[in-house]
Amino acid sequence: MTEDLSPAERYAASRRRTAEAATALGAFREMYEFGLDPFQIESCQALEAGKGVLVAAPTGSGKTIVGEFAVHLALREGKKCFYTTPIKALSNQKFGDLSKRYGADKVGLLTGDNSVNADAPVVVMTTEVLRNMLYAGSPALTGLGYVVMDEVHYLSDRIRGAVWEEVIIHLPESVTLVSLSATVSNAEEFGDWLDTVRGDTEVVVSEHRPVPLFQHVLAGRRMYDLFEEGGGRKRAVNPDLLRMARMEAGRTGYGGKRRGREADRERERRQRSRTWTPGRPEVIDRLDSEGLLPAITFIFSRAGCEAAVQQCLFAGLRLNDEAERLAVREIVEERTASIPPEDLHVLGYFEFLEGLERGIAAHHAGMLPTFKEVVEELFVRGLVKAVFATETLALGINMPARSVVLEKLVKWNGEQHADITPGEYTQLTGRAGRRGIDVEGHAVVLWQRAMSPEHLAGLAGTRTYPLRSSFRPSYNMAVNLVQQFGRHRSRELLETSFAQFQADRSVVGISRDVQRNEAGLAGYKESMTCHLGDFEEYSRLRRQLKDRENELAREGVNQRRAAAAAALEKLRPGDIIHVPTGKFAGLALVLDPGVPAGRAVGGRRGRDVDAFDGPRPLVLTAERQVKRLNGIDFPVPVEALDRMRVPKSFNARSPQSRRDLASALRTKAGHLVPERHRKGRAEAADDREINRLRAELRAHPCHGCAEREDHARWAERYHRLLRDTKQLERRIEGRTNTIARTFDRIVALLTELDYLRGEQVTEHGRRLARLYGELDLLASECLRAGVWEGLGPAELAACASALVYESRSGDDASAPKVPSGKVTTALNEMVRIWGRLDAVEEDFGISRTEGVGQREPDLGFAWAAYEWASGKGLDEVLREAEMPAGDFVRWTKQIIDVLGQIAAAAPGQGSTVPKAARRAVDAVLRGVVAYTSVS
């Protein structure tokens, strides 16, 4: 308190306040009603000092304040600021926020389908737009002083992540970079890389949540805390949850006695009454009664989100009062006024509105963008209290809630159902707790069968979210780089990528291991030195002999297994055999030969026979046991000693039946003695290579050394360490210059196809430089071959769809419907060209598994694109496409984007493609696709 300060201290404090008020940060702080957090102040001070900054902080902590300070500095210094985001929805939202603060005349917006006030000093854009501006040398870059990269951790994204690194590498040195990231565990490593490529960069990490988060598990009617109260830093899992998990795990282990089973069932009935998984309406009702709304429930399924809303409506849930209901209707009708009445029913508008009026909504990528924006606006205003969303909502959109609910801890990752990672859990639950509104946030996980409280505690308690580069060169990137910088400089630039930086860092540790091993090798080599001759040569002969003996031994084992398996395949039910070894060795009766399905009895087998892959006969032993045997029980071939009939009435589960048949077996064959299997002569005895090596060993000078075996032990250690060292060196080789080597292969392929000639970019290369996307080279080759010449607007739209669309269904989906005539011919030619490119890529060692190369064009959206561009109604197109409106709009807007690229890249003279592409854009950009809302 100032009263406790001396006059001198009060004077000094006054001087500091006066000095701070004169700074840009002082003026900036006056614009906000709340005080800034220490990490925000530290970041802003670094920016004002002329440094770049990397800010890593939890979701909802206010790190965008630092980005807004960069905007403030740019306007103060008369420079430009570009604010980049990963998704258009976030760009729209940020555009609205900055326009309100600084005025619509000073803020612009550039996304794939929006251009508003693009010459403003502050422009919000998607990251791809800035990347394209850098490659094109756009005049808009003149005067650029600051670039804010929001959600920069997106560079881990497998498909789009490379764009972030391209921008960071290629921005002019004069531009100050502000990188805003979620809390990542390797922020210092990322900061070191930024320091390398961008100059002095301050790394500011904050793990403090401004609103504390409490973790819960909802089971039945009870909400359990995940952790016990207190306990210091390492919190203990709630023992009630552990007890529930143990009781549920014991449900299946009923005792053998009837009374025990009945007691267990009764105990299970009582337990189930407490641990059932509550339904979605019950969860929302429970949260409402506990004052934990508004809430976002994450359901990893679009259909699940829509079903959840319907379930809540059918249950009669109403979270809004009459005044709120009227306010919702007014906002929704205003925001959807531009949608034609005939489309409202098709879009499910009235069901959507009913849910909103009750305070309930879904939010996922399959929804119309306008509908999603309405949900976001109403949620922020407190007029929607319960949102059921897919995990895409966790990526940047400003929709904080009091509570977050996770239905399950498993999601589909595109290939399989997998547990969510600690990083994903942190990202999802980070939405809980609204700064300045809530005292605390709540994460609620629904109890599921076989849930492990310890696993959940591990997710909640781990903050491991490493940033991993997904950067890979592409064809478009290669021609743009060579065009701007030449091949040598381009290669050097790629070597500065974060991907190579991470690879090189991992090499450092391996290199230390190699150096340590090399020192050990020198010592071992000295210890195995022999005064009689070259012991390294003698050791090599010993190893060659040992390897040859092992090889022959393996061949012998395989041959014996094959012979034994072939003998087993000849067995029939009723054969009496003698099991040579194992737990059930002795007399046995074959009940079932157990030949694997699809293999003919007596059929030939390969050399390598798996003991568990051959016949597995079911036998009755003389001791009355019925057992399924396998190859391990038959190390040598077995033959039938005799035969006896197996009664049709024989029941392997009946003790009496087994006893009677075993008795008959002993009576029938108890006196039989199996023929002893004779071991053949060892192959090593007659092997010429082994005899030669043994002769050389005996003739070597070191063979007579008194310390020969001592030297041999050192030699064995030497060669084992040498083998390990070579493996490490191969790992280094694989990680060093990986990006540059991939670039070299791409350049070689582009040179082969005449896109590059040495340092020169050809006409075809300049065309490719204007085509961005996963199928950039295919699009360029189609233009080069004139595949789209003579096509009408709707026909070209159908072909363009194959360049962007990727079906959500599997490879076994039925063949898609495509328009007939010219479109079919053009699409077939596109697939043929892709096949040729795929073969060329294989020749040059370019693989899709490395994230490089062209995927096969997907024709699944061609019919929908053709119909829409031909003027068909939304109802008809969506019905035939069997696709949600949101997906239809998203793919159609991507078609518009690629059509614009085709129009710019197509040959100017004598080509029909540019005009057709522009007309196709006009034909497609109508109705529901043109409903673009800019907040």
Structure in words:
- The protein has 935 residues and is of the alpha/beta class.
- The protein has 33 helices and 24 strands.
- The strands form 5 sheets. Strands 4-3-5-2-6-7-1-8 form an 8-stranded mixed beta sheet, with helices on both faces. Strands 10-9-17-14-11-13-12 form a 7-stranded mixed beta sheet, with helices on both faces.
- β23 (756-757) and β24 form a beta hairpin.
- The protein starts with 6 loop residues before the first helix and ends in an 11-residue tail after the last helix.
Keywords, please?
alpha/beta; 8-stranded mixed β-sheet; 7-stranded mixed β-sheet
| Biggest beta-sheet profile | 8 strands, mixed
Count all strands and give the number: 24
Q: What shape does the CA trace take?
A: globular
- State the strand order across the main sheet: 4-3-5-2-6-7-1-8
Distance between the termini: 44 Å
Range of helix content: 40-55%
Please tell me how large the radius of gyration is: 36 Å
Beta content: 5-15%
Structural class: alpha/beta
Mean residue pLDDT? 81
Low-confidence runs: 252-259, 598-612
Number of helices: 33
Secondary structure layout plus pairing:
Elements: H1 7-21, H2 24-29, H3 38-48, E1 52-56, H4 64-77, E2 80-85, H5 88-102, E3 107-111, E4 114-116, E5 122-126, H6 127-136, E6 144-149, H7 162-170, E7 176-181, H8 187-198, E8 201-205, E9 213-219, E10 222-225, H9 239-249, H10 258-275, H11 280-289, E11 295-298, H12 302-314, H13 322-335, H14 341-346, H15 349-357, E12 360-363, H16 369-380, E13 386-389, E14 403-406, E15 410-412, E16 417-419, H17 422-429, E17 441-446, H18 453-461, H19 475-494, H20 498-527, H21 535-569, E18 575-579, E19 586-592, E20 618-621, E21 626-628, E22 642-643, H22 655-669, H23 688-699, H24 708-735, H25 738-752, E23 756-757, E24 760-761, H26 763-768, H27 776-785, H28 793-804, H29 822-843, H30 862-869, H31 874-881, H32 885-905, H33 913-924
Parallel strand pairs: 1-7, 1-8, 2-5, 2-6, 3-5, 6-7, 9-17, 11-13, 11-14, 12-13, 14-17
Antiparallel strand pairs: 3-4, 9-10, 15-16, 18-19, 18-22, 19-20, 20-21, 23-24
Helix pairs in contact: 3-4, 6-7, 17-18, 19-25, 20-24, 21-23, 28-29, 28-30, 28-32, 28-33, 30-31, 32-33
